[in-house]
Design brief:
Layout lengths: L3 H16 L13 E6 L6 H5 L7 E5 L14 E7 L9 H12 L5 H5 L8 H14 L8 E7 L6 E5 L1
Parallel strand pairs: 1-2, 1-3, 3-4
Antiparallel strand pairs: 4-5
Length: 162
């Protein structure tokens, strides 16, 4: 039996299906661009940055890490971190402690070895992720990689790495 949340998802999906207009859309993204941003549920990249389905690939992960984009065939990467990120300023050990508590564990090598991509300074971390992508051995050398910060209070973007 479906939970109320699952029922809501199925109901929304049926409504979406009745208005879906992209049947047959190819997987090759039209602009050969990727937006890497955080998985924070407060972000709506398609709406905020003006893209339609199929135009760009959007990679969302904890902390907007560029590591997921390193080997894609594209021409541009916009790496977009955001203010008030849950990983900003939180030591990795604290996250591991929360994970252990949620799992009911006092000790766990698996949790201790789990890589959490926390960061202490937003602009510095954005610059480091851009450099990571620009210098990655699997990256296409013709990429244009830029770094941005999305302000969660104003919803405005600011480019910090050209």
């Amino acid at each position: 039996m479906s939970t109320p949340f699952e029922f809501q998802v199925l109901e929304a999906n049926a409504k979406y299906d009745s208005t879906y207009r992209h049947s047959g859309l190819e997987c090759l993204f039209l602009r050969k661009a990727v937006i890497v941003t955080c998985m924070d549920c407060r972000l709506d990249p398609e709406s905020a940055y003006g893209f339609e389905l199929g135009e760009v690939t959007i990679i969302r992960n904890a902390g907007a890490s560029g590591r997921d984009a390193a080997s894609l065939r594209l021409t541009q990467v916009l790496l977009i971190k955001h203010t008030r990120c849950g990983l900003l300023g939180v030591p990795e050990e604290v996250v591991h402690g929360i994970m252990k508590k949620n799992l009911g564990l006092t000790e766990s090598k698996d949790v201790d070895d789990f890589g959490v991509l926390t960061f202490l300074e937003l602009e510095k971390s954005t610059r480091e992720e851009v450099e990571y992508l620009r210098n990655h051995p699997l990256a296409w050398k013709q990429w244009r990689v830029t770094g941005w910060i999305h302000d969660m209070d104003t919803e405005l973007l600011r480019k910090i790495v050209e």
